[in-house]
Design brief:
The structure is a single chain. It is globular and about 45 Å long. The chain has a single domain (4-93, 156-228), classed as Rossmann fold. Strands 2-1-3-4-5-6 form a 6-stranded parallel sheet, sandwiched between helices. It has 231 residues and is an alpha/beta fold. Helix content is 48%, strand content 14%. It starts with a strand and ends with a helix. Helix 2 (42-52) packs across helix 3 (64-75), helix 4 runs antiparallel to helix 5 and helix 5 (113-124) crosses helix 6 (133-146). Strand 1, helix 1 (19-25) and strand 2 form a beta-alpha-beta unit.
Length: 231
């Protein structure tokens, strides 16, 4: 039976976030990109994805996709064969993060998502990649494809997410935690907390990458995924 991988994107990201990984894996796997743009809570998004994918599957989530993956693992652990958590956090929103989100929503509603991306780029990318026009263009295209209304729903879901740390020890499927060496949003110590909370997880740091490691260092991520999902 063909193995299925479900990729859950991050905030303002589409399936293009995982384009290098899908290209590398789709010959031997059924690769699906989850829709995380329609609901106002992480739980409702998790339920939608679980209802849309039959059977067991491998699950990959980056950033907001990781928040959703935690919830999916809590709600249907028997459905998840292997779990990959990338550049994410098990912690709830900090007060300063929660305070910023309505500001970004208001900015998007008045001026569009271009200025929002401008604000977020230094947190999304390693400093050395901020001048990479092709990479920045991908991020702007994903934001435009997401749209303002979906961005509002995503931010609402993120700011109201729960603390997933108490549930980490219940994750028993093989788990790989990856983090960019220069990730400012969810730095390596946050990834270490996740891996240690799960206990059996493998932790890998992606050299030179920031928060969007799948696009910044795709070859490294592809190799780690291929090795982890080999059987």
């Amino acid at each position: 039976m063909e193995r299925t991988i479900v990729f859950v994107p991050g905030l303002l990201c589409t399936g293009e976030l995982y384009a290098p990984q899908i290209a590398a894996l789709e010959a031997s796997r059924r690769c699906l990109v989850a829709d995380h743009r329609q609901q106002l809570s992480i739980g409702a998004i998790a339920d939608d994805i679980l209802a849309s994918v039959p059977g067991r599957f491998d699950l990959v989530g980056l950033s907001m996709g990781g928040y959703i993956a935690f919830e999916m693992a809590a709600r249907a652990p028997e459905r998840i064969r292997r779990l990959v958590l990338m550049d994410t956090s098990a912690r709830p929103d900090r007060p300063d993060q929660t305070a910023l989100r309505p500001e970004l929503i208001a900015l998007a509603e008045v001026e569009g998502l271009g200025p929002v991306v401008d604000r977020l780029l230094p947190a999304f990318l390693a400093e050395r990649r901020l001048g990479d026009r092709e990479l920045v263009g991908i991020i702007r295209r994903m934001a435009a494809d997401t749209g303002v209304e979906a961005f509002r729903r995503q931010q609402t879901a993120i700011m109201n997410r729960k603390d997933a740390r108490p549930e980490l020890a219940a994750i028993t499927c093989p788990t790989l935690v990856m983090v960019g060496e220069h990730d400012r949003l969810t730095p390596p110590e946050i990834a270490r907390e996740i891996a240690e909370g799960i206990g059996s997880a493998v932790l890998r740091t992606i050299p030179r990458a920031g928060h969007l490691a799948t696009l910044e260092e795709p070859e490294v991520v592809n190799a780690l995924l291929a090795d982890f999902l080999i059987d």
